[in-house]
Amino acid sequence: MPALLQLVAQLPADLPAAVLVVQHLAPDADTESLVTRLAGRTSLRCQVAGHGAPLLAGHLYLAPPDRHLLVKEDRVLVTKGPFENGYRPSADALFRAAAVAFDSHVIGVVLTGMLHDGTAGLDFIKRCGGTAVVQDPAEAEFPSMPESALRNVAVDHVLPVAAMGPLLVGLVGPTHVGPAHALEIPADLQLEAAIAERVVGSAEQVDQLGNLVPFTCPDCGGNLWELNQGKVLRFRCHTGHCYTAAAILEGSQRKMEETLWVALRMMEERKNLLATLAARDEVYETDRHTERLNDLKRHVNRMREFLLDEYEGENEDTAPD
Asked: Nearest 5 degrees, angle CA 99-CA 105-CA 107?
């Protein structure tokens, strides 16, 4: 929120463009209070985006919690579509819809944030002739999102938040020179945007976008298709969940860890039950059952060590230099 407040404070009331904001929030977040904070720092007219609201210059639209913010023609769309990269609202979903609706007139801005949301979205914008702007990771509180964008997309401008306002005003001003010819919107982005508007797609539609791969969706367990277009490696299931390859990797790691913890709990319970039976019933005092109990103890200790090693390895990966 501090970076967003700093940015919108630089934008004038007569900005000849609409400003649409995706903030990663809890599903029960109080967006009205956030809009009040934003309105206290900017001359733009701020509001929580409402489905079907007109898209007007000089207005700021904040995505509601647990809803995707999209645009079509001159209207705002608010949907409860599937998560993209684990997020709803998702910057990728907004960037794609805006790029399809407004081609080279779109400016995508990625500020401080965690993980990868916005990376594929900036690629969508670039493919439609728009402009990509990223906060300098060196000054970002959470540099993960800006760094991911810079690794994967030909970003046009990388700069501190304090310098973004004048840049954006210049980019939407009358003296800015855009592409000489309007670009044709890629068919795959048009189809993905249409699927997002309708909330869910079909296997036949996703077949048009990519190839079936032997991976499963971390959210719903369905089949995944590797998408053929764009510079960012992405996957999609037919229900609408979308991921970058990095998001798939992290999602599968999380699911695997959850599964291992469940397995550890079940083995602990079985070990304790065998020990209890052995103490109370002479049938379970045999060498065979003692061997089974010792085997379980060894498996429990190995799995516990594995999980702890994984946890320590993650901490080393995320520790500051």
From this structure: 70
